């Protein structure tokens, strides 16, 4: 009985699972940030949104 109690206590105090969850949350946030950055860049040929629109607007203002 003492052995089972010691194992349960050790399992309760083990924080390796919490670290794995924290790393998973950080990875998920990183994926969201990368996806947002890629969508912000937009397609190369599409100049109606994203960074393509911004560059097109700048070029239009520089060369009226």
Task: Explain what the structure shows.
With 64 residues, this protein is an all-alpha fold. The protein is built from three helices and no strands.
The residue fraction in helices comes out at over 70%
How many DSSP helices? 3
Question: Which residues form runs of ≥5 with pLDDT under 50?
Answer: none
Q: Element order, helices and strands?
A: HHH
Number of strands: 0
- Name the overall outline: rod-shaped
Radius of gyration: 25 Å
Mean pLDDT, nearest integer? 78
| Cα separation of the termini | 85 Å
Summarize the topology:
Blueprint: H1 2-13, H2 16-41, H3 50-62
Organism: Spongiibacter pelagi
Keywords: Membrane, Transmembrane, Transmembrane helix
Protein name: Flp family type IVb pilin
Keywords, please?
single chain; 64 residues; rod-shaped; membrane; Flp family type IVb pilin
Summed up, what is this model?
This protein is mostly helical. It has helices spanning 2-13, 16-41, 50-62. Helix content is 80%, strand content 0%.
């Amino acid at each position: 009985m003492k052995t089972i109690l010691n194992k349960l206590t050790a399992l309760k105090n083990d924080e390796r699972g919490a670290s794995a969850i924290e790393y998973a949350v950080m990875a998920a946030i990183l994926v969201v940030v990368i996806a947002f950055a890629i969508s912000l860049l937009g397609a190369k040929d599409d100049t109606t949104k994203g960074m393509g629109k911004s560059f097109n607007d700048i070029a239009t203002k520089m060369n009226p």
